[in-house]
Amino acid sequence: MRPSSMQAAAESAPRAEAAPLRGLGSADAAARLLRDGPNALPQAEHRSRWAIVLSVLREPMLLLLLAATAVYLVLGDAGEALLLAVSVLAVIGLTIYQEQKSERALEALRELGSPRARVLRDGSPRVLPAGALVVGDVILLAEGDRVPADARLLEDTDLHVDESLLSGESVPVRRHIGGPAEAALVHASTLVVSGHGIAEVVATGARTEVGRIGVSLRSLHVEPTPMQHEIRRVVVLFATLALATGIAVVALTLLARGDWTQAVLAGLTLAIATIPEEFPMVLAVFLALGAWRMARHQALVRRTPAIEALGAITVLCTDKTGTLTRNRMAVAELVAGDRRAPPRPTMDPALQALLQTAVLASRADSIDPMDRALADAVAALGTHPIAPGPDASDLLREYPLTPACTAVSHAWRRGAEILVACKGAPETVAGLCHVEAGPRAALLAEVDAMGRRGLRVLAVADARWHGDAALPPSMRDFDFGWRGLVAFADPLREGVVEAVAEAHAAGIRVVMLTGDHPATARAIAAQAGIAAGTRGVVEGHPLEAMDDDALLRCATGSNVFARVRPEQKLRLVAAFKRDGQVVAMTGDGVNDAPALMSAHVGIAMGQRGTDVAREAAAIVLLDDDFVTVVRAIRLGRTIYDNIRRAVHYILAVHVPIAGLALLPLVGGGPLVLLPLHVVFLELIIDPACSIVFERESEAAGADIMRRPPRSQEARLLGVRGLFANLLRGAAMFAAVAAVYALGLAQALPAAQVGALAFTALVTGNLGLIVVYRAGDSLWQTLRARNRAFAVVSALALAVLLLVTRWPLAAGWFGFEPPPLAPWLLAVCLPLAVAALLKAGRREPAAPDAGVPATAG
Fold first, then answer.
1. Helix ranges restricted to H, 187-325
2. What is the dihedral of CA 528, 534, 536, 539, to 10 degrees?
3. Rounded to an integer, what is the distance from CA 306 to the centroid of its chain?
4. CA proximity to 675, closest of 343, 265, 287
5. Contact 546, 539 (CB under 8 A)
6. 8 Å CB contact between 95 and 303
């Protein structure tokens, strides 16, 4: 961990009023708390319910919904105004609910992660909330404690601290007094894994190492996602089209008939039908329901637009410790002489004795990761012949690890003799065993080779002592015999290898950014399936001297970066973004937070992640599972595909509506579409473009994770796509126009002609839904289950039957039931056209991937 101003604070912090064994007085502590503020990490201000409502209402797309409602009210169309008002309230309510749910969940996470502290106040130990700590407080630290503030040790006994959340190192570090000033400092949010100590608080809140990184996040701003930019562009496009077509209809009607009433009625009908209220609904509903689906898979979405950005990422930057790995050591290998093997029931007796001795050299209730790994290894053997260790009452003495002797020994009574089990640094244990120079060099070479494989190695030895003799004061007085080596690994999380492979298949580059040793980073990357690249493993220190161009070349040449500090992670993410990549960053530590916020999508771990990381991220994984990231990417791609389908459907379906509004003006017949008819059509269009297409996840294509990511220049509606969808809509309008012409040719009454044309328009609408649903063939599409489509189709056809075949209901719409034969033709012809359009339209293998969107 790098030196900081914290060190200076530790050396200069006044302690005049704080006796080490007495602590501060209550009055003094209260005054300091008032002066310095609570010991709390910098957090985003908690938003009230009204603040959330206002932020939702300021969204331009929801403002368009409200504006459309106002337009209907001005037009006197109370029914459509009510329908839109309900839609607005539903969308706002769903968005507010999701925002409040995220806020509540994050608050719960903060409460779970907020430590309590044992403090000396007025000479007596007390348990207080960590937020009540002040500079000068004397705190008591023991195994399992989360350090509540930055502090300087006053006393220590074999104190080891897990600082992986700050440094990325998975191996605990020794903190002690009597050495360099930095060695006596313990930092907020780190975990005591062994030993105990007494420390004086030297920094709280934003002045801690954790807090300073949190403060730096305030200078970073969250960027709008590509989908937000694109949907606003499409909204502007359709609003322009709606205005232009409405004006054109008014002008054409006036020229053709000179009737202002009919001209205004025709223009307003078309404007009502083409106002793009579906677009904001599509985005809001798809993303809100996507967030709900992700929550069911243990992913809490804090900013819903990040979901679709996940589906566009090209570079996934991931931390190692706790993200790819479990941040929990496991015994990987046992070495005794020329025998080596992982722990298993059929081990050689020498390896059995090695493991048993290592367990005896560990504390039974320890939370040290290596002690726990040894206990887990024995427990996993089940009926293994290794005898259980002595009772805790048989432990006669513990010889703790010291800076002068980096090993620990436990003396156990075994009948008439005493067994002394020892484990520690290989060079130290070799010295205790008096290993000669030649074998010692070979031994250390073996240790070095294991280290290059990413293993952490301890040596094990034992000794015998006469049961009646007093134990010596130092473990150096025992005559130890060498037992062997125990190698530990921080294993990969289950499913990580498959998840990385799936990301690679999807064209996503996986990059490891870790503060760990290069050898460990190389080994873990190889296990996970991450190739180091042409530049191999790059360490963080050389990155400091590189300018932006050199850094970019380095970033494109390596996938594994070790010994990386927070500011270097941030620079690397920025380099990827300058290279035109869409970047996602996963992490759990404070050191990940700046990169989490700078990336297009920041993904934090919820269980062991820090508050700072969770606040910086757009998505919080509640199960800390890297595999969930890949699921989120799949969902993001599916959401984008479904939004694209809905947008293309909206474009195509409005063509026959606009055409039918214009056709009587060109043909000289009576107006067919009235506002009430358009309201009925909207009852089909709105659920279809929001609910039906949102449910297409199961049929979205098995190859969705075998496509390259789409380009940032990709468009929902490119030039070719725009015309392709207009042509599909025009083909459906041709079917509607043919039915209309047939009715006129048979000299049917205007009310019956209108019923026929309306029937063709409704069935053509349902046919276009089928055209744009997922699937390469009509059979494949219809076979895929989509309950929303079945419900919408059944209700639409039922009401259509009612208003075109039952005279009373037909009168409400200004229709008369037409003869059965032309009515059946009005039903079948648009569906036949839809089948032909479906046969000619194929699902793109990689929609909008890598090039601007031009395909339909």
1. 209-216, 226-257, 260-274, 278-296, 306-310
2. -110
3. 9
4. 265
5. no
6. no
CB 337, CB 331: distance < 8 Å: no
Of the listed ranges 3-17, 25-39, 287-301, 450-464, the least confidently predicted one is: 3-17
Most confident of 102-116, 313-327, 545-559, 671-685: 545-559
Structural domains of the chain in order of their starting residue, each with its CATH number? 5-219 (2.70.150.10), 226-290+634-840 (1.20.1110.10), 309-326+494-624 (3.40.50.1000), 330-488 (3.40.1110.10)
CB neighbours (10 Å) of residue 320? 29
For residues 335 and 484, give the distance between their C-alpha atoms in angstroms, rounded to a whole number. Answer: 5
**Strand ranges of the sheet holding 339-341, from the earlier edge strand across to the other edge:** 339-341, 330-336, 481-489, 456-466, 417-424, 407-414, 395-399
Q: Is 537 helix (H, G, I), strand (E, B) or coil?
A: strand
Q: What are the start-end ranges of the H helices in 668-749?
A: 675-687, 693-694, 719-745
Output the CA–CA distances (angstroms, integers) from residue 177 to 110, 140, 197, in the order listed.
Answer: 32, 15, 10
Q: Are 482 and 424 in contact (CB under 8 A)?
A: no
CB of 266 closer than 8 Å to CB of 44: no
Residue 564 three-state SS: coil
Place of tokens 């637009």: 305
Are 833 and 735 contacting, i.e. CB atoms less than 8 angstroms apart? yes
Q: Which residues pair with 194 in a beta bridge?
A: 160
CA dist 548 → 292, 551, 552 (Å): 40, 5, 6
| Model pTM above 0.90 | no
Q: Which two tokens stand for residue 662?
A: 């214009």
What is the tens place of the pLDDT at every residue in 234-275? 777 767 777 777 777 777 777 766 666 566 656 666 666 566
Query: What's the N-to-C CA distance of the chain in angstroms?
Result: 53
Dihedral (Cα; 421, 427, 433, 439), 10-degree rounding: 130
CA 320, 153, 372 angle in degrees (round to 5)? 45
* Helix (H) or strand (E) run with residue 760 in it: helix 750-772
Across the strands, what pairs with 197? 141, 156
What one-character DSSP code corresponds to residue 660? H
How far is 264 from 21, CA to CA, in rounded Å?
Answer: 88
What tokens appear for 60 in the block? 């331009």
Strand, helix or coil at 16?
A: coil
Q: Is 322 in contact with 171 (CB distance < 8 Å)? A: no
Inter-residue contact 223 to 178 (CB < 8 Å): no
Q: Which three-class secondary structure state does DSSP give residue 495?
A: coil
Q: Are 566 and 591 in contact (CB under 8 A)?
A: yes
- How far CA 194 is from CA of 159, 190, 191, 362, 663, in Å, comes to 6, 12, 9, 11, 83
DSSP-derived 3-state class of residue 772: helix
Q: Residue 505 above 50 pLDDT?
A: yes
The pLDDT > 90 percentage for the chain reads 24
Instruction: Extract the tokens encoding 164.
Output: 């992986």
The count of C-alpha atoms lying within 13 angstroms of the C-alpha of 791, restricted to the half-sphere facing its C-beta, is: 10
Quote the DSSP letter at residue 842. -
Residue 246: how many CB atoms within 10 A of its CB?
Answer: 22
Cβ-contact 687, 829 below 8 angstroms: no
User: In the chain, how long is the greatest CA-to-CA distance?
Assistant: 122
Q: How far apart are CA 344 and CA 359, in angstroms?
A: 15
- The tokens describing 487, both together, are 């190698």
In the DSSP assignment, the letter for residue 520 is H
User: Left (φ > 0), alpha (ψ -120 to 50) or beta: where does 68 sit?
Assistant: alpha
Residues 6+ apart with CB under 8 A from 238: 274, 276, 279, 650, 651
If you ran DSSP here, which 8-state letter would residue 612 be given? H
Give CA 683 to chain center in angstroms.
Answer: 35
Contacts of 364 (CB under 8 A, 6+ apart): 375, 389, 392
